[in-house]
């Protein structure tokens, strides 16, 4: 039964193009079972690549023995093992565990270097229900209540949890029947931690009162997960309707219901890797920034980020992009690393607007800031102050200072992504630079 369920999930991974399974192997009951099950699967699918990764956090006095156990098991099964020591900064135990988890996932990420790789963890049904209870305690919405997804994009590949339909007791029966040996993490017995309290006290009580509680709760989590997927698809569609270059259209957001709008905003923060808002911040973002009066200059600041409005658009900025350097020499054709991305120039004679290449004796610099310069964009008549050009193009004042301006000697010849000066715009068929800034 265990193997049938696991193999079904592994088949699905193969159908999705995964050929390298990397087992997140702590040496505990769950990942020990996973290791053994995957080994059995590989015997039937010899072309697959199977490896394991153990992260040594050094949090337990027994951490060295755990690593030895993992090395021994992998050696017996001829599974290559990577192990990594990570330093976890001191703090209280609960936050220590969160920091350790962060560090662990960073190690896993570094291993998933191709699209056909997946990291597999030993999470099972009981873990899901514990996560559900923790989410209830925090008052989470659907995202938290649907607990952990069975499959998700991760680094360049995937993160899979192929044992979510199996209970801890099923895994234990299997492990005992196979005479597997595994390590016991002594901290799992400490009910001071919420997860342990749920596992050791709360769930046995529920099971005693309502036999079958775990299966029912597991089914609920699964159903919530399906609903979440549907909602995520809808949110991705809403987001692409609201998206304008690097901003969101307030008009388009207004046309959505409250719930759909909130989801789009959260989706946007995730994509930009900005910390999510609290409930209060989310309200502030909409009521006090997006819906502020036209002449106000509202902004929301949180964790080094800023939400700002300009005309009908919402913009997201962070401290890193807030302090651009003033001027830097560009040794083209080498890419140039700037605080807000990487600048590249390709020589081409077709497609988008192209900038004439500099002569051998011209120096090329990139400058930022509100320069008091007259410029001659090709799509406008005559020359005018740079500031005037930005106003005509409706570029928000705080964004202007982040736009790389290309100078040949002391002449401003282009604003990357916005315009090229009249005398430097290539004629049809003429080859020149196409410049792009990749964030
Ligand atoms: N030190 C480790 N090295 C490698 N993999 C690990 C390690 N610790 C945990 N894992 C992987 O994570 C799975 C879940 O472990 P555990 O329940 O202890 O994690 P957790 O702290 O609750 O956090 P999370 O569920 O987010 O991973 C394990 O089955 C195993 O696959």
TrEMBL record:
<dbReference type="InterPro" id="IPR014729">
    <property type="entry name" value="Rossmann-like_a/b/a_fold"/>
</dbReference>
<comment type="function">
    <text>Ligates lysine onto the cytidine present at position 34 of the AUA codon-specific tRNA(Ile) that contains the anticodon CAU, in an ATP-dependent manner. Cytidine is converted to lysidine, thus changing the amino acid specificity of the tRNA from methionine to isoleucine.</text>
</comment>
<dbReference type="Pfam" id="PF01171">
    <property type="entry name" value="ATP_bind_3"/>
</dbReference>
<dbReference type="GO" id="GO:0032267">
    <property type="term" value="F:tRNA(Ile)-lysidine synthase activity"/>
</dbReference>
<dbReference type="Pfam" id="PF11734">
    <property type="entry name" value="TilS_C"/>
</dbReference>
<protein>
    <recommendedName>
        <fullName>tRNA(Ile)-lysidine synthase</fullName>
        <ecNumber>6.3.4.19</ecNumber>
    </recommendedName>
</protein>
<dbReference type="InterPro" id="IPR015262">
    <property type="entry name" value="tRNA_Ile_lys_synt_subst-bd"/>
</dbReference>
<dbReference type="GO" id="GO:0005524">
    <property type="term" value="F:ATP binding"/>
</dbReference>
<keyword id="KW-0819">tRNA processing</keyword>
<dbReference type="InterPro" id="IPR011063">
    <property type="entry name" value="TilS/TtcA_N"/>
</dbReference>
<feature type="domain" description="Lysidine-tRNA(Ile) synthetase C-terminal">
    <location>
        <begin position="364"/>
        <end position="437"/>
    </location>
</feature>
<feature type="binding site">
    <location>
        <begin position="26"/>
        <end position="31"/>
    </location>
    <ligand>
        <name>ATP</name>
    </ligand>
</feature>
<dbReference type="GO" id="GO:0006400">
    <property type="term" value="P:tRNA modification"/>
</dbReference>
<dbReference type="InterPro" id="IPR012094">
    <property type="entry name" value="tRNA_Ile_lys_synt"/>
</dbReference>
<keyword id="KW-0963">Cytoplasm</keyword>
<dbReference type="InterPro" id="IPR012796">
    <property type="entry name" value="Lysidine-tRNA-synth_C"/>
</dbReference>
<comment type="similarity">
    <text>Belongs to the tRNA(Ile)-lysidine synthase family.</text>
</comment>
<dbReference type="GO" id="GO:0005737">
    <property type="term" value="C:cytoplasm"/>
</dbReference>
<keyword id="KW-0067">ATP-binding</keyword>
<keyword id="KW-0436">Ligase</keyword>
<dbReference type="InterPro" id="IPR012795">
    <property type="entry name" value="tRNA_Ile_lys_synt_N"/>
</dbReference>
<dbReference type="Pfam" id="PF09179">
    <property type="entry name" value="TilS"/>
</dbReference>
<keyword id="KW-0547">Nucleotide-binding</keyword>
């Amino acid at each position: 039964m265990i193997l049938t369920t696991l193999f079904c999930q592994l088949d699905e991974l193969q159908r999705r193009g995964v050929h390298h399974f990397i087992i997140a192997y702590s040496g505990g009951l769950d990942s020990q079972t996973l290791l053994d099950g995957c080994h059995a699967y590989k015997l039937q699918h010899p072309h697959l690549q199977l490896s394991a990764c153990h992260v040594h956090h050094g949090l337990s006095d027994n951490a060295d023995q755990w690593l030895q156990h993992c090395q021994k098991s992998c050696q017996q099964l001829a599974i290559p093992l990577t192990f990594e020591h990570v330093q976890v900064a001191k703090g209280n135990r609960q936050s220590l565990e969160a920091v350790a988890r962060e560090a662990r996932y960073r190690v896993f990420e570094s291993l998933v270097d191709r699209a056909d790789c997946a990291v597999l963890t030993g999470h099972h049904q009981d873990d899901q229900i514990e996560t559900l209870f923790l989410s209830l305690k925090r008052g989470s919405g659907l995202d938290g209540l649907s607990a952990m997804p069975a499959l998700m994009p991760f680094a360049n590949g995937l993160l899979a949890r192929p044992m979510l339909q199996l209970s801890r007791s099923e895994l234990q029966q299997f492990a005992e029947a196979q005479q597997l040996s595994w390590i016991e993490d002594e901290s799992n017995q400490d009910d001071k931690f919420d997860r342990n309290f749920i596992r050791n006290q709360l769930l046995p009580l529920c099971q005693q009162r309502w036999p079958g509680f775990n299966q029912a709760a597991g089914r609920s989590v699964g159903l919530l997960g399906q609903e979440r997927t549907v909602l995520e698809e809808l949110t991705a569609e809403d987001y692409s309707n609201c998206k304008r270059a690097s901003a969101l259209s307030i008009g388009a957001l207004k046309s959505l219901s409250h719930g759909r709008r909130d989801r789009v905003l959260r989706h946007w923060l995730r994509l930009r890797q900005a910390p999510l808002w609290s409930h209060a911040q989310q309200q502030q973002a909409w009521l006090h920034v997006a819906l502020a009066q036209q002449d106000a200059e509202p902004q929301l600041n949180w964790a080094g980020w800023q939400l700002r409005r300009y005309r009908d658009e919402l913009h997201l900025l962070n401290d890193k992009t807030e302090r651009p350097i003033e001027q830097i020499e560009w040794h083209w054709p080498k890419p140039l690393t700037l605080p807000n991305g990487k600048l590249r120039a390709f020589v081409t004679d077709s497609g988008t607007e192209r900038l004439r290449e500099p002569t051998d004796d011209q120096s090329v610099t990139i400058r930022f800031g509100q320069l008091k310069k007259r410029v001659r964009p090709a799509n406008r008549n005559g020359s005018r102050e740079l500031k005037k050009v930005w106003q005509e193009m409706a570029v928000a004042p705080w964004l202007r200072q982040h736009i790389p301006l290309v100078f040949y000697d002391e002449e401003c010849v282009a604003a990357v992504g916005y315009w090229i000066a009249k005398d430097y715009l290539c004629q049809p068929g003429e080859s020149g630079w196409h410049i792009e800034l990749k964030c």
